[in-house]
């Protein structure tokens, strides 16, 4: 289930994943698509560091770019645009994200990546929900303000994360040939929560996206998805910027409420 979006493309392995399926690069690990491989998790940080060679990085980047289709490139562009719109609390985060996820649903269907297709279907449905919530603020408010989670909200968020992680881990360990089931489950579960909190315009959504991206960088690099690994590094920077921007917005909203 190595799969999304700064908001909408974070859990999709993009062009590098497709190049791995095509098998054009000798360094790409295709064990995920082979039933003959063991299901044990073999990811470790030492292996990640050993592969940090400049030529390997350059080859991976070049391979990913060469195999990128125009449709996928368009989806990537829209996905990145959705992050910037989200940082600025602009409603265009949803139209751009919806189109991006629909493209990825189609791409995943063509390459028989059904788990990833399901994840993008979730993003699509949550973006519809978020679009509605953002455009229907409470009575007396011009727009839905950025706010912090209350203690109950944290409890629900952590509950969703833990439940998602347990279910996904069980499925990946017992019904797939994934060799990184626990790390994969972690990034997917945190992305689930991040998307849900973003729809509610909660500051903490960025925390879960940062968790997703930080773990995804070495994970995708280990899997041979160099271009995607760099993409998640870029997403991490954007998520940190988004967190800072939303903290400022939440403080401003809180100050305005006090003044009123």
How much is the average pLDDT? Answer: 77
Give a quick account of the main beta sheet: strands, pairing sense, barrel closure. none
Share in helix? over 70%
Order of helices and strands: HHHHHHHHHH
Q: Percent of residues in beta strands?
A: under 5%
Rg is 19 Å
- Count the E strands: 0
Count of DSSP-assigned helices = 10
**Structural class designation:** mainly alpha
Q: What distance separates the N and C termini?
A: 48 Å
Return residue spans where pLDDT drops below 50 for at least 5 consecutive residues.
Answer: 2-6, 13-41
Overall 3D form: globular
Overall tally of domains: 1
Can you walk through the features of this model?
By secondary structure, the protein is mainly α. It has one domain. It contains 10 helices and no strands. α1 crosses α3 and α4 packs parallel to α10. It is globular and about 55 Å long. Mean pLDDT is 77; it is low at 2-6 and 13-41.
Give the topology.
Blueprint (H helix, E strand, L loop, with lengths): L13 H9 L22 H6 L3 H13 L3 H18 L5 H18 L3 H22 L15 H25 L5 H19 L5 H18 L3 H34 L1
Helix pairs in contact: 1-3, 4-5, 4-10, 5-6, 6-8, 7-8, 8-9, 9-10
């Amino acid at each position: 289930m190595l799969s999304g979006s700064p908001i909408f493309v974070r859990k999709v392995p993009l062009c590098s994943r497709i190049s791995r399926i095509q098998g054009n690069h000798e360094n790409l690990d295709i064990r995920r698509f082979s039933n003959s491989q063991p299901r044990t998790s073999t990811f470790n940080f030492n292996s990640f560091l050993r592969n940090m060679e400049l030529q390997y990085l350059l080859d991976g980047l070049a391979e990913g770019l060469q195999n990128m289709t125009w449709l996928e490139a368009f989806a990537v562009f829209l996905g990145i645009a959705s992050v910037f719109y989200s940082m600025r609390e602009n409603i265009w985060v949803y139209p751009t994200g919806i189109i991006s996820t629909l493209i990825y649903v189609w791409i995943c269907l063509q390459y028989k990546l059904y788990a990833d297709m399901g994840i993008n279907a979730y993003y699509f449905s949550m973006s519809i929900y978020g679009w509605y919530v953002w455009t229907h603020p409470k009575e007396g408010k011009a727009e839905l303000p950025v706010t912090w989670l209350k203690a109950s909200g944290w409890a629900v968020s952590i509950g969703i994360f833990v439940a998602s992680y347990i279910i996904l881990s069980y499925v990946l360990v017992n019904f797939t040939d994934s060799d990184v089931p626990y790390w994969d489950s972690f990034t997917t579960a945190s992305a689930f929560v991040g998307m849900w909190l973003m729809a509610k315009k909660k500051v903490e959504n960025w925390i879960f996206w940062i968790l997703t991206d930080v773990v995804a960088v070495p994970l995708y690099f280990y899997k041979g998805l160099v271009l995607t690994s760099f993409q998640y590094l870029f997403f991490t920077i954007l998520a940190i910027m988004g967190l800072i921007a939303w903290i400022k917005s939440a403080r401003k909203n809180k100050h305005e409420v006090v003044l009123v």
